[in-house]
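ESCALATION

Customer reports they have been waiting on this structure for their group meeting. Please prioritize. Original submission:
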Amino acid sequence: MSYIKSKEELKKMKKSGAILKEVVDILVPSIKVGMTTNEIDHTAETLILERGGSSSFKTVSGYSWTTCLPVNEQAVHTPPTSRVLQDGDILTVDIGVVYKGLHTDYATTIAIGTVPPSTKDFLQKGEKTLEKAIKMFQSGTRVGEISRFIEKQITESGYCILKELTGHGVGKELHEKPYLLNYLDRPIKKTLLLQSGMTLAVEIIYAQTTEHIAYEREREWSIVSADRSLSACFEKSIAIDKEKPFILT
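Update from on-call: job pushed to the front of the queue and completed.
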């Protein structure tokens, strides 16, 4: 299979992931009320270049930024702008690094300033679900088992999977096969069997009150929840091993 990585490719992906983790550890804590998403993007690019990587997202045809920075109802793919972050917003920081031709991908959604308990609960559910789901990514596991788990965790909390948006393979390209659904759409035995050497971007994308998306008219690329309820995304890149996944980002 083309998406099984060699040891040399995995070595490069680990370096790519290490760069990305270091960038995120500096970037995310620096984000605060009053910043523009353009400022965040410029900082992210500088941090990546200083560490010997380059922007994965700029390899996507027509996309000119280092990050995607959705706010509130924006779910994914929102380009940076002059928008100023306000107290009570939530912001998704989605960022990718390419190092010697190998990509890794990462996203988290954070509260800006003070948000109500309901928003904190909303964000914690996605973050915790990702942490638990990643442990299930082992050689010999069917992807459907993980899809069913994610769907149950999110929907039983009263939230909604944005079903048109998925996780994906990552490595030689930013987006590769296989696609990783956050819900079960077929019998588990008919879903992909995970194998050692696969590299995947596990990406949980959900909204408060709808499973449907819409495209934001005034912003090219930007996808929002159809009812404009809060949306969030939590993503990490991993490599499949026989016993447990290796978290790249």
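Sent to customer with the following note: The mean pLDDT is 96.
Escalation resolved.
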